[in-house]
Amino acid sequence: MGQSRGLRPAGGRADMSASAAQQLMLGIFDLGYPKAGEDGLAWQEYALCAQTDPDLFFPEKGGSTAPAAAICETCPVQQECLEYALSHDIRHGIWGGMSDNERRRVVKARRRGQGA
Ligand code: SF4
Question: What is the largest CA-CA distance in the chain?
Fold first, then answer.
């Protein structure tokens, strides 16, 4: 990944350092999971949610997921984000445009597809 895909770092500033982007992400993804710079998470540098209200991505129970999902739809790293959440069994928040319930359905569908 990188500039060759036309991606711009979070904040829309090409000059934002990876460490600055990591700091932004910590406020959003600080759930005890690996952070940007660890475990091949350079994609988090391009996360659109880093430029928005983190609370949107962690709605109250029964709250709308639509505002966060709408942002995710335009995020250049949506697929990386979703796969990360699926592979780490993340149960909190909106990742890759999907709620925890939606992600669970994806996991179940994939398991069925593999005959598990
Ligand atoms: S897909 Fe959504 S949650 Fe994931 S990095 Fe992009 S904006 Fe953030």
Answer: 47
Range 94-116 average pLDDT: 91
Q: What is the DSSP string of 68-84?
A: HHHHHHT-TTHHHHHHH
Ligand 1: list residues with CB < 6 Å: 47-49, 57, 71-72, 75, 77-78, 81, 94-97
DSSP state of 87: H
Task: For a ligand 1 pocket test, name from 28, 44, 49 the mutation site with the most ligand atoms within 8 angstroms of its C-beta.
Answer: 49
Q: Which atom of ligand 1 is nearest to the CA of 69?
A: 2
Could you identify the residue written with the tokens 């359905």?
105
Q: What is the pLDDT of residues 16-74, one digit of tens each?
A: 444 554 455 555 555 555 555 555 677 888 888 888 887 888 888 888 999 999 999 99
**What is the chain's alpha carbon radius of gyration, rounded to the nearest angstrom?**
14
* Token pair listed for 62: 């029964």
- Whole-structure pTM value: 0.71
Query: Residue 44: its pLDDT value, please?
Result: 82
